[in-house]
Each structure stands twice: as C-alpha cells, then as structure tokens.
Design a protein that fits this description.
The chain has helices at 5-14, 21-42, 73-77; strands spanning 83-84, 87-88. The chain is mainly alpha-helical. It has a domain at 5-42: Orthogonal Bundle (Histone, subunit A). It has a two-stranded antiparallel sheet. Strand 1 and strand 2 form a beta hairpin. It is flat.
Length: 95
C-alpha cells in the first residue's frame, strides 16, 4: 500500500491532530515501513499452522483466591465528609 503526504494530512485531520509538514513526512516514512512489514507478514504461508494463545505454549499460573485484608469499612468511612449506614453520602447530581 502506498501513501502520500496528502493522505497522511487527511488522516491527521480526521484524528484531529495538528501536524506540521516535517511531522507529516516523518509519519509518512513510518507508515510506509509499517505497511511494508504487514505486507511481508501477509506473504508468509501459514496454512496448516494452528493458532495459539501463547507463543511459548505456556499455561497461566493461577494463585488461590485468598482474602488478605479484613473488613476495613469502618476505618474507610471515617475519611468521608458524610456517611450513613457505612456508605458514603454524596450530593445529588441528577434531578
């Protein structure tokens, strides 16, 4: 895929990014490199290769779900300017 400076400026405009001419030229060079890499990757024959979630074939190490902190509600509610029944009271914002 080929790009030109006008297309880079249009993309920047759509993204609401203000871009100078020098920045547009740098972005153009970077985008051309990225698109070239994508084209090289798409040219690789991946038929017969099974998709995988982890390139190293590893499994997630899970830990036991253990409570590490006790009930701190009373201490936390003390920080509130106003509380009622263990809950924070906030000003009404919707009428």
């Amino acid at each position: 895929m080929s790009l030109d400076l006008d297309q880079v400026r249009r993309i920047a405009h759509l993204a609401r990014i203000e871009i100078s001419d020098d920045e547009a030229r740098q972005a153009l060079a970077q985008l051309v490199d990225i698109f070239g890499m994508i084209e090289r990757m798409q040219a690789i024959d991946t038929g017969g290769i099974e998709p995988m979630a982890d390139p190293l074939g590893g499994a997630l190490r899970l830990r036991d779900d253990v409570v590490t902190e006790g009930d701190e509600r009373a201490a936390i509610v003390l920080n509130a300017p106003e509380h009622l029944g263990g809950l924070f009271v906030v000003p009404r914002v919707v009428e």
